[in-house]
Design a protein that fits this description.
about 180 residues, alpha/beta, five-stranded mixed beta sheet, 7 strands, peroxidase activity, GPX_AS, Thioredoxin_domain
Length: about 180
């Protein structure tokens, strides 16, 4: 019988447990905004509740970044993961990612995870927003917010007009924590 060191067995066991807890829609590797680094969304979320937002740099709702950052700071230690998905589906995103990054990181001080620009609706939708669209409906404009339980079974959609600091959104977040 072959013997494995304990750390290998522990690693193998935690990997299989981890794989079993990751919803398939998050089982993707995605490039971070204006970066060569990628993030594995399963590793980032690890079965935690998630707030997913399709964003744009030149939208009337762009100022919501400030309140989204405040939500991130308020709930990150309670387990919430906030992820922004810049998209040009509504023709309000910068053409160059460095400009999108400037809006997020410099203008609004965003520290939550922002991913590379990608489609959030239509035939070339990214896999995360495909899942969200199937469960709750595709975004009809920028800054649609989706609160998703850690197992991915509960998806609550909030339109652009629902402010990140609204009672309605905060209650939804607290219901999945």
């Amino acid at each position: 019988m072959m013997k494995f060191p304990l750390f290998i067995l522990t690693s193998l066991m935690s990997t299989s447990v981890f794989a079993a807890t990751c919803p398939s829609y998050l089982d993707v590797e995605v490039r971070k905004l204006h970066s060569e680094q990628s993030v594995n969304l399963c590793e980032l979320t690890q079965g935690k509740p998630v707030l997913l937002i399709n964003t744009a740099s030149n939208c009337g709702y762009t100022s919501q970044f400030k309140a989204l950052e405040a939500l991130h700071k308020e709930y990150k230690d309670k387990g919430l993961v906030v992820i922004g998905f810049p998209s040009d589906d509504f023709f309000q995103e910068e053409n160059d990612e460095k400009d999108t990054a400037k809006v997020c990181y410099i203008n609004y001080g965003v520290t939550f995870t922002m991913l590379a620009t990608s489609p959030v609706r239509g035939s070339d939708v990214n896999s995360v927003f495909k899942y969200l669209g199937d469960k709750a409906g595709a975004p009809k404009w920028n800054f649609y917010k989706y609160v998703v339980s850690g197992d991915g079974n509960t998806v609550m959609q909030f339109n652009s007009k629902v402010k990140p600091d609204s009672t309605e959104l905060k209650q939804a977040i607290e219901s999945v924590l």
